[in-house]
UniProtKB/TrEMBL annotation:
PANTHER family: ASTEROID PROTEIN (PTHR15665), PROTEIN ASTEROID HOMOLOG 1 (PTHR15665:SF1). Residues 642-693 are annotated as: Disordered. It comes from Esox lucius (Northern pike). Belongs to the asteroid family. This is Asteroid domain-containing protein. InterPro entries: Asteroid, PIN-like_dom_sf. Residues 666-675 have a biased composition (Basic residues). Residues 676-693 have a biased composition (Polar residues).
Length: 693
């Protein structure tokens, strides 16, 4: 991000970065940079889909360190892509780089690239909310808004985006790579805790190179940044002749020496263009002029709207947004800034485009995003088709979104049709938040092909992931088998158990279950099982897109805490053991409450498939991924029979539950004939009650 090579150049000049002990101040944090930094620098799993609970722990420790030093954090996240479309090539290059990293990790080649797990952004936002850390999600890229807020509050910025070496931030820029938050120390002069770090200011940089601060944007534009690259235009200017310095950064030193003779931006830019005009044709001259002007413009600090948001909780009015972003309905602005709506809706509404993420999976197979595409098609339908004021008698025109996703090892694009399920045909985007809860819930469940009755026995906070699991079992390719499902559900049990241990002291059976589960968490340095990785990658794609749809529909289902839903190193190990002699019962033995939770989720999945409910949008599934349901139903019947044999069958009509507590039917029954168990499991029940908090 920013200006390639500039960070290394500045760190090589010893007199520019100054050592400081930071405390007792506001701090504007580049949120996307922070969660990348915390995940990648904590040696957390990248090959098995992520370890989100460990990531949560790192986030807690980071913000506790800030609190200990009386530092008030304000986290700012990127929103949609750049509204003028100038960075599309940069985003495509990043996407291709992620595909390459996924390939390396899938073969066990660590250290050849980094890849964030699918749900990191969502986990990060949820944890900030739980910690009451002030956070804002911009409608556009965050860098200009961050610079604006830092200027107004006269406080520093924490990031590693080299664009902040160009913005004139008086209080300075703190490179996150030098921010020693794990080494909190006591300042001897004031006896207060502080964080050792390095600070950069444009004043020290310009004094060192003897140039005017106004020329820094020209320097960045000519060297090349995310917006423009003269080299990519076929324009090569030699700056090394203007310095006696040799080596890797001679062109940086030469350009800075050359710029030292100018006072203002226009004068310097005109001189650069004259150098181009002498050596290249008019077409390249025109491209260079427009590109350099655009790049320089990006370093102008706007008035911004983050100050009013953080101080008053007010979102900007539509008139204050960039013109392209005024397509956003008024009601979406505040939840979007609070991070309660996905930022992808900005790109879909504004540019009809989305660049998909990549995970470690079998790259010979179709992307895991294909499996969740029907869910996104409904999201697109609500955003695009759901905003038409009138429809012709021949039906509405078809809307499409361009999706960039991998095909094999290459980034390609395809046009994806926006689809509206029958339950949402009368909904309009501008009033979607006011639609009855029952309608919004019906749209969501219809999209996933799940009935509300099948989820009634599941705790509210797990209904969405269980519904996603039902969808995944029908749509994933290859079809998930029994060990894959069992390991996934045991992973959900682990998440609930770990969460409960944080809230209250666990009883002995629960402690023993926790110890049995964590015993299976082993650090893997080799390549993952790609069949398993591909299947769970599809599940995470389905979960992410379902969460986004649920958010757009104003949460008809309770939003789950994603940090507790998936632990890749655990479920991969469990899946391998379940293919051997281990069974879920052997893990859940003597821990009846969590055994009941496992059975309740399994029962809900079986009921959903037994009902034969199919999604009304299944026609959007590519023909290559359509498959008969017979094999899947047979597998679910086997799981149901095994559930009955284990002696843990539950009732069909559990007590009405709410979001605070959950009453689960606990069962003891005598052995029946297998036929009767499979056909009429409710006849063999005795009911007891276990309360879930």
């Amino acid at each position: 991000m920013g200006v390639p090579g500039l960070t290394s150049f500045i760190e090589g000049e010893r007199n520019i970065l100054k050592d400081v002990h930071f405390r007792n101040s506001k701090l504007i944090i580049d949120g996307c940079i922070l969660y990348n930094f915390l995940y990648f620098n904590s040696n957390l799993d990248q090959s098995h889909g992520g370890d989100y609970d460990a990531f949560e722990g790192r986030i807690h420790k980071f913000f506790q360190a800030l609190k200990d030093c009386s530092i008030d954090p304000y986290v700012v996240l990127d929103g949609g892509s750049n509204s003028n479309n100038s960075k599309l090539e940069t985003f495509k290059q990043q996407a291709q780089s992620n595909i390459n990293s996924a390939s390396h990790l899938s073969r066990g080649l660590h250290g050849r690239g980094s890849l964030l797990p699918t749900l990191v952004n969502q986990v990060f936002k949820q944890i900030l909310a739980s910690l009451s850390v002030p956070m804002a999600q911009c409608t556009d890229e965050a860098v200009q808004e961050i610079a604006s807020l830092a200027h107004r509050w006269n406080c520093p910025v924490l990031s590693n985006d080299s664009d902040f070496y160009i913005f004139n931030i008086k209080a300075g820029f703190l490179p996150i790579s030098h921010f020693q938050w794990q080494n909190v120390s006591v300042n001897k002069t004031c006896s207060q805790k502080c964080i050792p770090c390095k600070r950069y200011t444009t004043r020290s940089f310009c004094r060192y190179f003897n140039i005017n601060k106004q020329l820094l944007p020209v320097f960045a534009a000519v060297v090349g940044n995310d917006y423009v690259s003269l080299r990519n235009m076929g324009i090569f200017l030699r700056w090394e002749d203007h310095t006696s310095v040799e080596g890797r950064f001679a062109h940086f030193n030469g350009l800075l020496s050359w710029l030292a003779s100018f006072q203002g931006q226009e004068e310097a830019l005109d001189s650069v263009l004259k150098r181009i005009d002498h050596s290249y044709n008019r077409q390249k001259m025109s491209l260079a002029r427009s590109g350099l002007s655009l790049a320089i413009e990006e370093y102008k600090v706007p008035s911004g709207f983050l100050e009013s948001f953080f101080s008053s909780g007010v979102a900007p009015g539509p008139c204050r947004l960039p013109v392209p972003h005024r397509v956003l309905p008024d009601w979406t602005l505040l939840p979007l800034m609070k991070g309660r709506l996905p930022s992808c809706i900005v790109d879909v509404l504004q540019m009809r485009r989305q660049i998909m993420g990549t995970q470690v999976e079998d790259l010979r197979m179709p992307s895991g995003n294909i499996t969740s595409r029907p869910i996104r098609q409904v999201l697109y339908g609500l955003l695009l088709a759901g905003r038409r004021e009138c429809q012709s008698s021949d039906g509405p025109p078809v809307e499409y979104v361009e999706e960039y996703d991998r095909e094999g090892m290459n980034l390609t694009s395809s046009m994806v049709e926006a689809v509206l399920p029958s339950a949402s045909e009368q909904l309009q985007l501008d009033t979607l938040h006011r639609a009855p809860h029952s309608v919004r819930c019906e749209v969501f469940l219809e999209t996933l092909g799940v009935s509300s009755s099948s989820l009634s026995g599941v705790p509210p906070h797990l209904r969405l992931p269980v519904a996603v699991t039902c969808y995944w079992l029908r749509h994933a390719h290859p079809q998930p088998d029994k060990p894959l499902l069992e390991a996934l559900l045991l992973g959900l049990v682990y998440g609930v158990l770990r969460k409960q241990r944080k809230i209250q002291r666990a009883k002995r059976p629960e402690r023993q279950l926790f110890e049995r589960l964590i015993w299976h968490i082993k650090k893997s340095t080799g390549s993952p099982d790609l069949v398993v990785a591909h299947s769970y990658s599809q599940w995470q794609c389905c979960l992410k897109d379902s969460i986004h749809l649920n958010q757009l529909l104003s949460l008809p289902l309770p939003e789950p805490q994603c940090a507790w839903l998936y632990k890749g190193t655990l479920v991969h190990q469990l899946e391998a053991k379940l293919r051997g002699t281990m069974t879920p019962d052997s893990l859940l033995v003597e821990c009846h409450s969590f055994e009941q939770l496992y059975r309740a989720m399994l029962r809900a999945i079986h009921k959903s498939h037994a009902a034969g409910l199919k999604s009304k949008v299944s026609g959007a599934i590519p023909p290559s991924l359509k498959k008969p349901q017979d094999d899947l139903m047979a597998r679910m019947q086997v799981l149901a029979l095994e559930e009955d044999d284990s002696g843990a069958e539950g009732g069909e009509n559990p007590k009405q539950e709410d979001d605070v507590g959950w009453t689960l039917v606990r069962t003891r029954h005598k052995t029946k004939k297998r036929y009767n168990q499979s056909q009429n499991p409710e006849f063999s029940q005795k009911q007891g009650r276990i309360s879930w908090e």
